[in-house]
Each structure stands twice: as C-alpha cells, then as structure tokens.
Design goal:
This protein has 377 residues and is of the alpha/beta class. The chain is built from 14 helices and 13 strands. Strands 3-2-1-4-5-6-7 form a seven-stranded parallel beta sheet, with helices on both faces. Strand 2, helix 2 and strand 3 form a beta-alpha-beta unit. The longest helix has 20 residues.
Length: 377
C-alpha cells in the first residue's frame, strides 16, 4: 500500500515535531505500507529524516500564502492521490480536501476553535472570525474522515459533542524527546534558599490570552512580598494583545527586573538546558489539547504546579498541584504549599517523571500506523 501525507498546514512547533518523530520511529512495512509520500513546504521537509520508504516532495505553493496553500490542498491533493495510486490520505493538520477517492484519516490538534469561552478572550474580530471558521472547517473534515485521531480523552469529549457524524476514533498519545529527560533532583528545605541564591521558577509557553502569564507574575510578586526568595523566568514567543498586558504587569510589579525575566523565544533544541536549570515549573494555560510543554517539564524531573483546566489533570495525574489560572491568589497559595514542603516537592516531581516515561514516540508511531492500517482495511 501507499500512504499519502498532506503536511500543508504542518508548519511550526509541535506539528513538525510530531510528524518528524512519528516518521523517524515508524516501521510502515510492518503494517503493509510499502511507500509513504509527504507533500510539504521546504521548512517542514527539512525537519524530516530520510528513510528508504519515504518520498519527500517539496511543493512550492506550500511556501506561499494561505490562499495558495488552501487551493493546493483542496484541488491538487485529490489529483496527486490518484496519480501516485495512494491507498490512504493522512492529514495530521486537521483539515481534509473536500473530494478524495481514498479513505482519509486526520487529527484533532487545536482546541481553541472548539472552546468558545477562550475565543472570547481575543479582542481582534479577525482572530475571532479565524477560530470560528476553523471550527466549521475542522468539524466538516472530522465528519468526512474515515478515521480521527485524538491526543487526549478531554479533547475527544469536547470535540465529539460538536460532531453530527463520528468516524472511527482512536486516542494516540504524543511522545517526549529523550533530551528532555533528567531524573528528579534532591529537593532541599526552603530555608536553604536566600535572595542571593533564590528558588528558580520557570514558565515556558507562548504569551497568549489563555496562558495567563500576568496572573503567574502577580502570584510570584505576592510571594516576594511575604519574604519568599523566589524568581521566575518566562520563555516563549508572544501574541501582541497578550504581550501588552504581560509587559504592563511586569513593569508595575517588578520594574527593575529584580525577580522576574522574560527571555522571549528560545529554539526547541535549547529548551532541555532551560528546564534542567530550573527548580520548579508553573503551567497556567486554560486551553490545551495536549500540552507538549507540560510533558517536557514532567520529563525534566521538576516539581510542577499547574492549571486545573482542560486536559492538564488527565496528563499530570492526581497530585494536589492544581490552581485556577485566573486567580493569582490561588496560584500563590499552591506555590507556597509546594515551597514549604520539600518532601512533597520530591514526591510530585517523581510522580510526574514516572508518568512522563509513559509517553513514547515509538509507541505513538506504532499506534498511529496500526490505526491507519485499520482504517484502510
């Protein structure tokens, strides 16, 4: 059999990581796929490994505008599937061509189009329209698909309530790259820290309206006022509306940068070192499908305090480490409990690390190709 992969809207971040790792770990011939063809932009193809069964096709239109990419996907992909005698189309980006002559499988990767409360946080009418259009387009694709892959039970439940027709469904967990793993370190009593040698908190995530970095900043400021020697680093790119609020908050509570810094975007290959230098991790998002960042922090052996929204409890487990991400005082309280109990810090770091070991790219590849073969048959 021949598998065609439409990677037209796999362009940055977790999407490229997922496709790259699945193809790196795949044994497609074990599932009767003799050849895989990937159509993608040059940037996406650069991140994919070379395999004897893999044909990487650079499509110039996919380096171009959104209109060019949509036109190619909707009108050219069906022709390519016929020309290459493909037996199955896999579109991991969540959108399918309207008319194809072979079975199709797609993925639910982005929860924002399905979370109306989160969409309302945006002030831009264009952004709101974008997510509403994505909601309509992705629902149409999911309902047309022969197979649909979810990443978490939470995403499956939220999205399926909005579908009139449900295709064959499977949940396939992502993996974690080996470089992020570091066994939990010994946790010291908090009185061993000082302003000269503070306890270092870390929050990695793009600054966006549903990530609530400003509330985390306020919580850390509250702890400093109470005498806790803590600092925090924020890492990630930004959405302008959210960044304005975040910068204003930082300027108000720590104008001299005494205990919090924003480091901006850092490439993925440099992130393991950032995690490994931290003492604990904070994750305050209110909208996720499967947050790779949270998985990476778990693998890094860090004590974690986390938002109680979305799939986070499903991923992190039952440890009492959760807070309402829109209540700074609650974030501060949970952080204080963690800081004051080094035995508990040791316990939650170990529990998170053990759970991280359940996420494997090898297993992800096996389950993905098993499902693709099942849909074809």
């Amino acid at each position: 059999m021949i598998l065609g992969i439409d990677a037209s809207n796999i362009r940055v971040g977790g999407g490229i990581t997922h496709l790259s790792e699945v193809l790196r770990c795949a044994r497609p011939r074990d599932y009767a796929f003799q050849k895989i063809i990937v159509w993608a932009s040059i940037k996406t193809l650069t991140g994919l490994c070379n395999q004897p069964w893999l044909e990487k096709v650079h499509v110039l239109d996919l380096d171009g505008s959104l209109i060019q990419r949509i036109r190619w996907q909707q009108f050219i992909v069906p022709k390519l599937l016929k020309q290459n005698r493909c037996d199955l189309l896999f579109s991991p980006g969540g959108i399918l061509p309207r008319y194809v002559s072979v079975p199709t499988v797609t993925m639910s990767r982005n929860m924002l189009p399905f979370e109306s409360k989160e969409i309302k946080r945006y002030k831009s009418a264009l952004m709101i329209l974008k997510f509403k259009l994505l909601n309509t387009i992705q629902k149409m694709s999911f309902q047309r698909a022969d197979g649909l892959i979810f990443l978490t039970q939470y995403a499956k439940k939220r999205v399926c309530t909005q579908l009139k027709r449900k295709p064959r469904i499977v949940i396939v967990l992502h993996g974690i790259s080996k470089g992020f793993f570091l066994p939990p370190r010994n946790q010291k009593p908090f009185d061993s820290y000082s302003l000269a040698k503070p306890y270092r908190l870390l929050y990695i995530s793009n600054v966006d309206v549903y990530k609530h970095q400003w509330h985390v900043a306020e919580a850390v400021a509250t702890l400093r006022e109470k005498g806790y020697p803590v600092t925090i680093d924020f890492v990630g790119s930004f959405y302008p509306q959210a960044m304005r609020r975040f910068k204003s908050t930082m300027q108000h509570i720590d104008p001299n940068g005494a205990f919090m810094t924003y480091k901006g975007f850092i490439p993925n290959y440099e992130l393991p070192e950032i995690y490994h230098r931290a003492d604990a991790f904070v994750f305050a998002s209110s909208c996720e499908n499967m947050p790779n960042i949270l998985l990476e922090a778990m693998a890094a052996g860090l004590p974690i305090v986390c938002s109680n929204r979305g799939p986070m409890p499903e991923i992190l487990g039952n440890a009492n480490v959760y807070f309402d991400p829109e209540r700074p005082e609650e974030i501060a309280d949970v952080l204080a409990i963690m800081l004051n109990n080094h035995t508990w810090r040791t316990q939650i770091a170990q529990e998170a690390y053990d759970r991280a070991n359940e996420y494997s790219w090898e297993q992800c590849a096996k389950e993905t190709f098993s499902f693709l073969a099942e849909v074809v048959s």
